[in-house]
UniProtKB/TrEMBL annotation:
One GO term (biological process): arginyl-tRNA aminoacylation
Enzyme Commission number: 6.1.1.19
Assigned keywords, A-Z: Aminoacyl-tRNA synthetase, ATP-binding, Ligase, Nucleotide-binding, Protein biosynthesis
NCBIfam families from the UniProt entry: argS
Alphabetized InterPro entries for the sequence: aa-tRNA-synth_I_CS (IPR001412), Arg-tRNA-ligase (IPR001278), Arg-tRNA-synth_N_sf (IPR036695), ArgRS_core (IPR035684), DALR_anticod-bd (IPR008909), Rossmann-like_a/b/a_fold (IPR014729), tRNAsynth_Ia_anticodon-bd (IPR009080)
Naturally occurring in which organism (per UniProt): Athene cunicularia (Burrowing owl)
Catalytic activity: tRNA(Arg) + L-arginine + ATP = L-arginyl-tRNA(Arg) + AMP + diphosphate
Known role: Catalyzes the attachment of arginine to tRNA(Arg) in a two-step reaction: arginine is first activated by ATP to form Arg-AMP and then transferred to the acceptor end of tRNA(Arg).
Lineage: Eukaryota, Metazoa, Chordata, Craniata, Vertebrata
Name under which the protein is recorded: Probable arginine--tRNA ligase, mitochondrial
The UniProt record lists the keyword Nucleotidyltransferase: no
Family in the record: Belongs to the class-I aminoacyl-tRNA synthetase family.
Catalytic class of the enzyme: ligase
The keyword Aminoacyl-tRNA synthetase is assigned to this record: yes
Domain of life: Eukaryota
Gene that encodes it: RARS2
Amino acid sequence: MRCGFLSKVLDLPPENLIKSISAVPVSKKRRVADFQLSIASVTEDSSSDCLAPDLNLQAQKLAERLKCDAVVSEISAGPGTVNFTINRELLAKTVLQQVLKDGSEYGVKSELFSTVPKQKAVIEFSSPNIAKKFHIGHLRSTIVGNFIANLKVALGHEVIRMNYLGDWGMQFGLLGVGFQLFGNKEKLKTSPLQHLFEVYVQINKAAEDENTKKLAKDFFRKLEEHDEQTLSLWKQFRDFSIDEYIRIYKRLGVHFDEYSGESFYQEKSKEVLKMLENKGLLQKTIKGTGIVDLSEKKDLSSFSTVMRSDGTSLYITRDLAAAIDRMNKHNCDTMIYVTDKSQSNHFQHLFQILKLMGYDWVERCQHVSFGLVQGMKTRRGEVIFLEDVLNEVRSRMLQNMASTKTTKEIEDPMETAEKVGLAALIIQDFRGLLSSDYQFSWDRAFQSRGDTGVFLQYTHARLHSLEQMHGNEQLTDINVACLQEPDAISVLQHLLRYDEVLYRSSQDLQPKHIVSYLLTLSHLAAMAHKTLPVKDSAPELAQVRHSAVRGRSLCGADPVAEALVCYSVHFSVLSLYACLNPSAFPVDRGSAVFLPLAGCS
Ligand code: ARG
């Protein structure tokens, strides 16, 4: 849109403008222009700070040289920028038409993405360990990975969602022995995650005893030798756990295309060790372990252990085999791993070894890491199961709903509570930079006012009910002359920035740009609601519709045009929500949604 508006005034082909023109962020305090051209991005040698005054001067000169036309109504110079104001009516018309035309693909179809090639990405996320805790790090990996996958899909890329389970290793020796002692087949079927965890805790207590240790070792050895009975019990642990995970992930709106796991790479990691040896990369230590030297000077100042002294593989060996297999199988353009930052070293080593092995595609692998979250507790205490978090979200939100007088009668309060609560949880998590640690607070996350997921849900519900009341048939008659109030202009200007925000998040994979965009959008929508009321009763509506066609309104402003602003906001809210987590947002639930703010019903 920006290029179309400005290419004539600047006398430059649109494709030259894509990267140098941006929409000006809306400001509460003052009226702002619509677009700005950054002088630094159009002049070549602009990296040095000492050029700043020169940039200002250049901006001024350029602004003086350019002439307004029917499209651009004002041109001014700012610090290092030339600012443009578009003819107000044209702005309103173009933005609204674009939103209506592109619908849920608004922003995605922007020229900003025209040069970005469509890619295939394997995104590995969640990846919990069977029989161990599903801790908050796994929860964060799940929602962040899902966000990245949703965003990429929304932008037209091909995505494979992969869950790489911790389903192998000595813990299965202990678990096997534990199951023989304390296990119960019925419980394994009905609640595998909880039962296996309990068995694991019990056997760990007993593991001090030398005999138990020996039994566990034997069990794991039999597993590695593919003893039929042992393998069949292990397979039941795995299969039942996956079934339960699928059910719980569904509540979060998450699914996987592939359930992979460390167990797949037991044999293949032997091949990796052979390859390392053949390439002269594997060194034996006095203790008999196998290491790869990662130091530049080859003085072992940095190394990675890839083989135990008994010749068996480690976590990193299985990851090496898994990465090679993923690339062979999917031939993807990018491979992303989402885990907390405590594993940054692991992934650095993994990528370094792959590089030494000659796999140039490692350049296209990326570890997306995130910070630690403290203080998330449920009624049952510290987080052990994902399901506990989801139940806590639901019951806390139900309680909030019960104590809010303005809550509407709703069909399925449990489901609504869960969706609104999940939005609250996700937005709290996505507001900051992923790498920052933060202190979790249920109260802060669940506030109905302020920058929370509850507020977004509320805005969404309000817009949705507006949309339902006004229907779509009005969208053809846009009287843009009635959309000139500052609050309407602010919404339009904010909508102009939507593609840039999507672009930014797609580049650095940080959800916070989208979240803060959405929150601003919701604040602007709230303001527009107050100052630009849309009439909602049917007979009145018929009257104002009529007046809107005549270009005049009975109530000061044009409700049709105002409704359009709301629709536009709504469309972009919807498509953004879809990136965050579609199932956390009750998009098809109409207005029958929890309305937590006083005075809104
Ligand atoms: N299961 C591991 C854990 O819970 C996370 C796996 C991360 N992915 C990987 N390819 N190593 O710590």
